[in-house]
Structures are given as C-alpha cells and as structure tokens.
Design goal:
Length: about 200
C-alpha cells in the first residue's frame, strides 16, 4: 500500500497550474497545491467545460509550485551531467507530462475525500518543511511532509516525505536501476511508452 501511496503523491514534488502569489509562505503554497489536486477530475469525454477549466487551473498550480527542473536533475543523478542541454530539456518535458497525465490523477484519487491536518511549519538552513497528517481508511494516520526551497523569492516544493521516506530518493533509486540495466535510452523508451498508454 505504501508504494501505491508513493506513486500517488509523486506529482506533489515534481511536476510536470490559479497562479501562486510571490508573497505566499510555505504552508499556503502546499495548501494551494493539495486543494488543486483534490479538485482535479479524471480526463474523460464526460467532463463539463467547467470541470476541464478546473483541471487546467490545477495543472497551472502544479507548474507554479513544484520544482520540476530540480526534480529532473536530482532523480537522474550523475546521468544528468552526461546529457546535453537539449537532452536535459527533453527529459524535463517528458517528466512534466508524466506528472500531469499520470501522477496528478492518481494523487487526486488518493487525496479525494481524505482529512488533511496541517500540523506544523519549520524553517531550516535550506528552506522549509510543512508537516501534515492524513487519515487514510486502510493505512490509518499517515505523515506526509513537504520540503520547500525558494526560487527567485517564491516557495517551491522539491520533495515529499511519506512517514519520513523521501519520495525523490525512492524515484531516483528506481530510475537508476533502469539506467543500470537498460541504459538511459531504455529509461526514455519506458517513459514514452507510459505516456502513450495514458493518451
């Protein structure tokens, strides 16, 4: 179950939206993103124009609050420096699309009707940590904390901790395993296939 939750909240760190105010603090930034996720509806032909507009706004919030370029660099590790600037941009774009088309809907399903309590905000030398508790019907109370740092004066989410387990570290480990076994091109092939399945 925990692996499923990790996959569901992947979009909350990544990628990769109403626009976030420059003056907003860490907790408000997280609240905006979580509420936009809760409002998201799975893409179907039955969606109304208003629901499609809500989804578009939700994606805007994701783009404005999740540090996807930083995420892309971190999950690739040493492979990142081996890529050209164009290749880095391509990887970041594919990752953003996966977050929007797959991870975001899964997160909407997970957070849908759950009770979320914002229990604390801590500042540190690298940024801030927003602590929350989520009451899950099967898992019970789950701790989901958000790490943020400032980019040009704006708070951005760069990691999510599920019961103290780093989502970025988890994803990085999975990606490195694929690269080791199949090569970087093998990883891209997998990502593109997953994206095609969601279309």
């Amino acid at each position: 179950m925990k692996k499923w939750i990790l996959g569901s909240v992947f979009t909350l760190i990544a990628v990769g939206l109403p626009l976030v105010s420059w003056a907003e603090g860490p907790t408000t930034t997280v609240q905006r993103l979580v509420e936009s996720v809760r409002a998201f509806k799975p893409e179907t032909t039955a969606l109304s124009a208003q629901e499609r507009a809500t989804n578009t706004k939700a994606q805007k919030v994701s783009e404005e609050t999740i540090a996807v370029p930083d995420l892309a660099k971190r999950v690739l590790g040493v492979q990142w420096s081996k890529l050209s600037t164009t290749e880095q941009k391509d990887f970041t774009q594919i990752l953003t699309q996966l977050l929007q088309k797959i991870a975001y809907p899964k997160s909407a399903e997970f957070f849908g009707e759950l009770s979320i309590d914002y229990t604390g905000e801590k500042m540190n030398e690298t940024g801030a940590l927003v602590e929350t508790k989520v009451s899950h019907p099967k898992e019970g109370q789950v701790s989901i904390d958000y790490q943020l740092h400032q980019v040009n004066g704006k708070w951005m989410i760069d990691d999510v901790l599920l019961d103290s387990v780093s989502l970025v570290t988890n994803v990085q480990s999975q990606i490195q395993q694929v690269i080791t076994k199949e090569s970087y091109q093998g990883l891209l092939k997998r990502m593109r296939e997953k994206l095609a399945e969601s279309s």
